Amino acid sequence: MSPLKRNDPSFTYSSGSEAEGSSPSRKRARNDVDESFRGVQNIKVFIVTSKLGNDEFVALEKLAQSRALSTGAQRKGLTVLKLCNSPEAADMIVTNIRMRKRFERTIDWKLAKGKAVVTPEWLIDSVNLGTPQACEAYAAIQDLHETTEENCPEPCEKCENAIDSDNEPHDGPLSPTTTEVDWVSHELEAAPPKCDISKLSYLSNYCCQRPSPLKCPNQELVEQLAVIMRFRDLEGEAMQMLAYEKTIATIKAFPKKITEDTLEEFSKLPYVGQKTMTKTREFLSLGHILETKTILASERYESLSLFTQVFGIGASVARQLYDVHGLRTIEQLHLFYDVDAIVDKDEDVADPDEPPEFRIPHALRLMDELNLKIPRSEVESIRDLVMSELEKIEPGYVGILVGGYRRGKQESNDVDIVIGHSDPSTAKAKITGLSKKLTRRLYKKGVVTNVMHLSSFRAPNAMRTAHWDSLEKALTVFILPPNLKNPKAPRVHRRVDLIFAAPQSFWTAVVGWSGSKMFQRDLRRWAKDKKMLKFDSTGITHRWDSKQIVASSEEDVFRILGLEYVSPEWRNADL
Ligand code: DCP
Ligand code: MG
What we know:
The strands form four sheets. A five-stranded mixed sheet has the order 2-3-1-4-5. The protein is an alpha/beta fold. It has four domains: 27-159, 3-Layer(aba) Sandwich (Rossmann fold), CATH 3.40.50; 213-296, DNA polymerase, domain 1, CATH 1.10.150; 310-369, no CATH class; 371-570, Beta Polymerase, domain 2. The radius of gyration is 27 Å and the shape is globular. 42% of the residues lie in helices and 12% in strands. It binds 2'-deoxycytidine-5'-triphosphate (DCP) and magnesium ion (MG). It catalyses: DNA(n) + a 2'-deoxyribonucleoside 5'-triphosphate = DNA(n+1) + diphosphate. Pfam families: DNA_pol_B_palm (PF14792), DNA_pol_B_thumb (PF14791), HHH_8 (PF14716).
């Protein structure tokens, strides 16, 4: 059956994206609109991103997004173009690729033969002319010319309940369906959309409303304050630490250099109190903060911060090692944890199928490597390798690099990847249990050397406990295979976190794991204080009945929370 002749009963014109079970008023609104457009027909369009520039893609996507066209005799029918995220679900595939070989690398050939595969001009002309065009002149691949013609949606001549011909076709964006998550596939491959920072304000009480760059005009002051913040953390003074984190977040968004001239304005910003003002004045006159200098010179700070660099050692264990066992150096820690004996023994008894657990002795042995920063190119290579292994398990998995990389950091401390599946109807099943399957596979390839058990990850590492969510994840130690072009290049162990998210959690997982930590914290605070909602990486839910509101893109997360969109490079609210 031609797509144009198919009535799609699932089609709704809701303006939100709440999951089933949303409020009665919203349900009523959906039904009202549904009723008036009964008989509307959809063409589902999938746009292949390869060979399209980002701008071109975004422009095409905008053209196709829930665009209503008129069809049929006296243009009485209504056809709605709907973007979809998988070629399987599409009626039309729009591509800039012309060569069969290249196209086959992107879309399964058998699948393509069942679709109309057209050039972007089809989309442009159909929208400009206000009616879907015959495909003949737009076939993208020579060998698919015939099947494209066969599968081309025919103009609808007898649309039931056709709209009145006096009515102009709707050309405004009609929001996607409510229950299925519509994947915005370009976001998976291209850079995230930019935000308009003039709509944000550094005066806000919430980090998630301020533009916070990677490096701010007062970065040196931030770094001096961060030493005091870290010291409070090491001493277990959580509230004091948070107070410094909040002040640092405020300064990160303050766009002016703090000088005698701007000090007055600075003093009125949120979370800037007397203590901060004293320290800032010190900094302005001396070039450093006195307390920072004292902390940096202390043996206690040096040892505790060294110890907490070892994966698995949090502040309270570090204090015990220092206070109770009298340890001061990493060499002493090596002896204390009997690193050589334990790691060697573990290697001898390693299970060939199951990656060994990464514990403190292993972390100590690899400490120097794991503390090396990871350049963006290596972050990308790690992502590519993970994705190619997933592809071998089953096609359709998608992955986004999140964490500091997504916020624009040139060098990361670890690699964070959120993984989903592009077929919304089966994604949940395809994600469940994937963590184990994938890590085993990567272990057998020698790429993953260890995994952290989630329980040991929970405490006492404060950084992580605060971020805990119920998403499935694999926290791994990873090493890229030898570089064939440069076999002598050193191979370095890296920390790689893989986060697995079903469609209803995918975009909140992306936002949550993109951070920064304080930005994410304030999204939660904002949702709670202002919207009666609960936000975390797992999803957004009503506080009163725990019903989930599903986001269909990163921007949608902000929209649901009633916030201006902030692109990742402006979410650097931490150091
Ligand atoms: N996160 C959080 N709360 C925490 C720790 C982390 O919300 N207590 C979120 C925000 C972080 C993201 O998880 O951006 C990833 O955590 P990382 O520790 O990997 O931090 P980054 O990726 O931001 O920086 P880097 O890995 O370079 O240190
Ligand atoms: Mg990270």
